[in-house]
Specification:
368 residues, mainly alpha, Rhopdopsin 7-helix transmembrane proteins, 11 helices, 73% helix, globular, GPCR_Rhodpsn_7TM, disulfide bond, G-protein coupled receptor
Length: 368
């Protein structure tokens, strides 16, 4: 028995991906099943929406000069992380099911690393936004006094930590030298690494709870103090709006991440006894939905952001209508009598002038 344990503890890098899946009892589909089609179809749909929503946020922040402040730079970086999450998850969906057995270990590690990097960056950006808002509200400022250099440094640190977290399993913290430590959810990952990653995200969650709780208590105290000089309606509305934002942020994080974090913890602690394979893909889809909820909470609740979205969509629709009008066939009427050309020519001139003005309005950003 001791010899068998010693044999499995040696590092043998010749094993392929299928070996690890068979070792932990995770079945690789030979043919496409209904469950595979449902998961892939739902996942790709969510990815498509995530990419479009976060791309819209990034375009709006870059085009509207009113958003060129630290908080919006962080929101733009969070949108970039969520957009990357959508692309990474789409890559996962296109390399799952029966395709898994054809992956090399390097390809498998890259597939997992993309997911880890994107989701870690998204969570780290959520924490950065929470800390920035705490600093702004406590100091009673409209925008943070953080310089662009510090904002860039913070963004670089977020991506550096995310990349390190994504590369750790492939570099050294895996189970290729200890097969008894293999995860059932991610067969090449170490169960101890999954416990560490889940606990780290739960710690981030509790830090966010503490930050937003302090913001709520502080603003409630300030509004109760200032309500002596303002109307009671404004005081109540301020508290209600703040409570909505707090519960939306925390509620979205709990709903989207808690099932996946609990699954990782159970898999790390119990291994095969956790039966995590039965629902781990659906938990991953729910976690990915957090990348869709983020632009809704942090961007669509901003009136200026909504106006910028409408402006972008109107420009896109107007350009599409102009292109369709240019491509549509035009019927040429026979020439009119010479005496009737005057009013017709004036009407055409007005139409052309209106079309030129509409195109110029499309390139003029309101309020920029």
């Amino acid at each position: 028995m001791a010899m068998e344990s010693s044999l499995w503890s040696t590092c043998d890098y010749s094993h392929n991906v299928t070996f690890f899946y068979n070792w932990v009892g995770k079945k690789i589909s030979v043919v496409w099943t209904t469950r595979d089609f449902v998961v892939i179809g739902l996942g790709l749909t969510v990815c498509f929406i995530v990419v479009l929503a976060n791309l819209m946020v990034m375009v709006a922040i870059s085009m509207n000069h009113r958003f060129h402040f630290p908080i919006y730079y962080l929101l733009g970086n969070m949108a970039a992380a969520d957009l990357f999450a959508g692309i990474a998850y789409a890559n996962l969906m296109l390399n799952t099911g029966p395709w898994t057995s054809s992956l090399t270990k390097e390809q498998w590690y890259i597939r997992g690393a993309l997911i880890d990097i994107s989701l870690t960056a998204s969570v780290a950006n959520l924490l950065a936004v929470a800390v920035e808002r705490h600093q702004t509200i406590i100091t009673m400022q409209l925008h943070s006094k953080m310089t662009k250099r510090r904002v860039v440094l913070l963004i670089v640190c977020i991506w550096a930590v995310s990349i390190i977290m994504g590369l750790v399993p492939s570099l050294f913290w895996n189970c290729e030298c200890d097969l008894d430590d293999c995860s059932t959810v991610a067969p090449l990952y170490s169960r101890r690494f999954l416990i560490f990653w889940a606990v780290l995200n739960l710690l981030t969650f509790f830090i966010m709870v503490a930050v937003y709780t302090r913001i709520f208590i502080y603003v409630r105290y300030q509004t109760s103090y200032s309500s002596r000089h303002t109307s009671e309606m404004r005081h109540r509305q301020t508290v209600v709006n703040l409570m909505k934002t707090i519960f939306m942020v925390l509620g979205a994080f709990v709903i989207c991440w808690m099932p996946g974090l609990v699954t990782l913890l159970l898999d790390g602690l119990l291994g095969k006894a956790s039966h995590a394979n039965a629902f781990e893909k659906f938990c991953l889809v729910i976690a990915e939905c957090n990348s869709l909820v983020n632009p809704i909470i942090y961007s669509l609740r901003d009136d200026e952001m909504r106006r910028t979205f409408k402006w972008i969509l109107c420009c896109l629709c107007r350009r599409g209508a102009d292109q369709q009008r240019e491509l549509s066939p035009v019927e040429i009427d026979p020439p009119l009598p010479e005496e009737d050309l005057g009013p017709v020519q004036k009407s055409e001139d007005r139409a052309v002038l209106t079309e030129i003005n509409s195109k110029e309005d499309c390139w003029t950003m309101p309020g920029v």
